[in-house]
UniProtKB/TrEMBL annotation:
Pfam families: CBS (PF00571), MgtE (PF01769), MgtE_N (PF03448). The keyword Metal-binding applies. It comes from Psychrobacter halodurans. Residues 158-221, 222-278 form the CBS domain. GO terms for molecular function: magnesium ion transmembrane transporter activity; metal ion binding. This is Magnesium transporter MgtE. The gene is mgtE.
Length: 467
């Protein structure tokens, strides 16, 4: 196995008989950066020809826009469709601006309905119409079906291409049908979907049962129950079902109980990843649409909104401090120690907030356990608050040799850390009840609460005990 290059060293070649699995993503990125810098177009084409569509998509998203266009031109035509389907919308759109409808039709020839629908979401209506006219009738129907769903609905993520059998045929007939259509099953298939004459889903037929039972047995005798998901269900709720039921796929039915598609594990993994990315960006006050290599002005604009909101909350905290100008003027030590109180509260609250928002995303918080968690965080905050209050009071005593200052900083930290933990769980719960995404605004509100409570308790206690 080749030795990875040092962190700042750009690999000049991929040694020996190239095996993509032997090289890390960072190694490949550094190597491709070298080829792009040298404008080695033939080498870029050769390199990309040995990568999967997932790897190429990841590499494209790791370059600024101008370099993406250069790399895209070297992507082999036979895989361009798969790569486009794997790209994020903001990355895909600029690449498709100069692609004709004829080229898109060629790229999508061998793609499934899900991938085609994904690609056509980023083209004009006229291009879409032209491409749709070139599709097979079955694929065109499936794409149109997917497009009837909202982005957040299960139906927009399901695979409409189904392998289904009727309940009134024998196992022998099923096997004969599968042998005549040997491309239907892949290596991961374990069950077949069973429907009746009116396309009502009845359940699943295990491939093990298909083989081991008498071949004259009717399918209806061996039907296993299936965990189903409604096509209008929220996709994040569907992901929670996959986790709780530990299933690999789920049949998708409409409101009439008719089978319309299936939701696969890989689709759910994509949803979970997108949800994680969205939560991380929201917690940091970054737009969900901002990508790593977005243009400078785009990133600046998306972040400025939350920076403005944060400035307003900071001014509110400053106004609270201004009410205690007299005590700060007389005791300089308070100005030195004041940031410690806000910082300890902020960290304690953020720890609780992160755990709570993750629990919400996993569907673990609801009903009576909310009160239990609130009580738990109250005690966690109180215990940690007391521990660090004593430690900080001891440090302040060694520093300033003033028992009153030590008492003020200790009590303020205990109060603020307790309040921070309680706020860390109560704020997201309240926002969820108001139908506001907790990940989007909870951190800003929490910062405001911990700053105000911290400054009020610290300076208020100083006014009482010192002045």
């Amino acid at each position: 196995m080749p030795t990875p290059p040092p962190e700042q060293e750009r690999p000049s070649t991929l040694q020996g008989d190239y095996n993509p699995a032997e090289y890390s993503a960072e190694y490949k990125l550094l190597y491709l950066q070298g080829l792009v810098a040298d404008r080695a177009f033939e080498d870029i084409t050769t390199f990309l020809d040995k990568q999967s569509e997932y790897e190429i998509a990841s590499l494209l998203e790791s370059f600024p826009t101008q370099n993406r266009l250069l790399i895209w031109e070297q992507v082999p035509d036979n895989i361009k469709g798969e790569v486009l389907a794997e790209l994020e919308v903001d990355t895909r759109q600029p690449l498709m601006e100069n692609i004709s409808s004829k080229e898109i039709s060629l790229f999508t020839q061998d793609l499934d309905a899900q991938d085609i629908s994904e690609i056509l979401d980023t083209v004009t209506d006229s291009v879409r119409t032209s491409v749709m006219a070139t599709l097979d009738e079955d694929i065109r129907v499936q794409v149109n079906k997917l497009d009837t769903y909202a982005d957040w609905e299960v139906g927009s993520y399901m695979d409409p291409d189904l392998i289904q059998v009727r309940d009134d045929i024998t196992l022998a007939e099923v096997q004969e049908w599968l042998r005549d259509n040997d491309d239907l099953l892949d290596d991961e298939s374990q069950e077949l979907l069973v429907v009746d004459q009116s396309q009502q889903l009845l359940g699943l037929l295990s491939l093990v049962d298909l083989i081991k039972h008498d071949q004259t047995t009717l399918v209806s005798v061996l039907i296993d129950p299936a965990v189903t998901i409604n096509d209008r269900f929220d996709i994040t709720d569907a992901a929670a079902i996959f986790r709780s039921e530990d299933i690999r796929f789920a049949p998708v039915i409409n409101s009439h109980g008719e089978l319309v598609g299936q939701l696969n594990g890989e689709d759910i993994m994509e949803i979970i990843q997108d949800d994680v990315d969205s939560t991380m960006k929201n917690l940091a006050g970054v737009s969900q649409d901002e990508e790593l290599f977005a243009p400078i002005l785009t990133s600046a604009k998306s972040r400025s909104i939350w920076l403005g909101i944060n400035l307003c909350t900071a001014l509110l905290a400053a106004a609270v401090i201004g009410q205690f100008e007299a005590v700060l003027a007389k005791v300089v030590a308070l100005a030195i120690l004041m940031p410690v109180v806000a910082s300890m509260g902020g960290i304690a609250g953020s720890q609780t907030l992160t755990v709570v928002i993750r629990g919400m995303a996993m569907g673990q918080i609801g009903g009576s356990n909310r009160l239990w968690l609130l009580n738990k965080e109250l005690w966690v905050g109180a215990i940690n608050g007391m521990i660090w209050a004593i430690i900080m009071a001891f440090i302040a005593q060694l520093w300033f040799h003033d028992i009153k200052i030590s008492a003020v900083i200790g009590l303020a930290i205990a109060i603020n850390m307790t309040a921070a933990n309680v706020s860390g769980i109560s704020i997201p719960l309240l926002l969820k009840r108001m139908n506001i995404d907790p990940a989007l605004s909870a951190s800003v509100i929490l910062t405001t609460v911990t700053d105000i409570v911290g400054f009020m308790s610290f300076l208020g206690l100083a006014s009482v005990l010192i002045l």
